[in-house]
Amino acid sequence: MIDRxxxxxxxxxxxxxxxxxxxxxxxxxxxxxxxxxxxxxxARSAGYRNILAPLTFPTAVSxxxxxxxxxxxxxxISLTRVLHGEEQYDYFAPICVGDEIATESKILDIYxxxxxxxxxxVLELNMHNQLDERVCKIRRSFxxxxxxxxxxxxxx
Length: 156
Description:
Blueprint: E1 10-17, H1 20-30, H2 40-45, H3 57-62, H4 70-75, E2 82-91, E3 100-113, E4 118-128, E5 134-145
């Protein structure tokens, strides 16, 4: 069982500089073609500070942590037992090229189902830009398969 003492644990924030090349590469990867995501002049004429990052870009920003596996390591979980649960996004302001996004994350909850054979870890990530505007909140969960379930992971 994952120790519930970690509920409420806050990780040190990390800061990401949003760069044009990274936003363009991300847009290529997801097939985003809207001109506000590619052209600064068009983005500014649409009312943005600069090239607009796509709505799913905060996921990439969240991975900028110096240690993206820090939750797994803190909870002492084998990666072979982890499944993606769900993600929910709340948007408050746009993320644009040139922004410095500070991401704070904490463990909101840890609970189990099926007699402990499945454990759920719920995280909340809050992002603010250099203007101290809250830009996004991500609530995500992952599932940890317990050894009681018979679903033990295998190494590839």
